[in-house]
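Hi,

Apologies if this is the wrong queue. I'm a grad student, and the batch job for Tryptophan 2-monooxygenase from Flavobacterium myungsuense produced an output file that my downstream script rejects. I'm not sure whether the problem is my script or the file. Here is the sequence I used:
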Amino acid sequence: MDRRHFIKQSTLFSIGGMLIPAALLASYRKETLFEDINYDGKVLIIGAGAAGLYAAYILKTKGINFQILEASANYGGRLGKLTGFANFPIDLGAQWLHGKKNITGDLIAKSGTKITLDNSDEKYWFNNQILSSLPRDINEIFTREDNLPDVSFKDFAIQEGYGNEYKNIVEAIAGDCGAAASRISAFWKIKEEENWSSGGKDFKFQETYFDLIDSQIAIHIKDEILLNTIVSKIDYSQSSIVVTDSNNNNYKADKVIITVPITILKSNDIQFIPALPSEKTAAFAKIGMDAGMKVFLKFTNKFFDENIIGGSICAAYADDSIGKAQSDNILLAFITGKQAEYLTSLGSDSAITNALLLELDTMYNGQATASFVSSHVHNWTTNPFIKGAYSYSTVGIGDSRKIAAQSINEKLYFAGEAMNINGHHQTVHGAVETGYREVKHILKAIKK
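Support response: The file is valid. Your script probably expects a header line. Output copied below for reference.
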């Protein structure tokens, strides 16, 4: 999943000069990555999300033997595509391109992929009415460049005098960052993004984000992906690394790139021999990742606004037809944090849908139920190989991402959006950057 347009109007612009165009693109454009590499070892990649796929793509260009082990039945990680529900394809996961000055922006330009600037308007559900603007601009407290305390969004808003009537608005701001308002740090949210260089505009795909990654990256390496292969153990105690799956099949490698979501590392779903350093596991624990789901609601009539912020069941709804060639009436309910936990606890897709319809009926005088056609619930929380939305900056996170991303003994390498230390975590392009980074580290180790 990905952050939405709403955050563009709040905390993303809060990093001062960091969104002013710096270098056009990262150094990867000019690097040759050791053209004369000659290596007969093997690299295993754990996870076929954006980071793993791009790492594999770069390894292939260098002629290095590799294989990807993917736990699920599909590649893509937190990318996914739904067809047949609407008259346009739907992104089940990551959806917005946050700036074009990055690797995925290059892929878009190279492929001619059609994207549309998302400048849709926001409306607010506030004190039981829909408003075009809030009585008091709460965004301003999250856009300050100094004096932000290391406390949660929720506590910071209270400290700044925003009462209970702003609770769901604060939840929406935190939700765009993938977190409950009581868990994400006001200070570290800003601090960790100081090096953001991707650009400040958000774009939507006419097709899907998944299509871009599939057609430009995965197509070149998909034959080397082993699906339904759940890694349970990584033994790096000897010169060769032995990776074991849930069926007790062993895979030998000289180096391993681990790209699984931070939730999987925090849950100890993979046993490491020897155990990972305590400093690293402590760093994993400090990187947040909350529950997350997307619910697509189809209606006969377009009674809803482009964005509705501030619901108590879903903090942010968005018109999913924006940027698409067709225009079925699809409203996206984007839910993270405690709201996603609550909806998950309801136990069924129909119960989740009914809860959302009830809230929309309250906002729009019964029009939701009257024009409802069908829904599609995609709950990333209950996916055993994902377990949530995307990483966020907890209170006290400090340099945990940097520690978590450090390689071990030139054998184990860590990638994925949570391991991005340049402010591009929570994004597909941030995940891709880490795949590139870790291959670069491997090539440097080989050249020693």
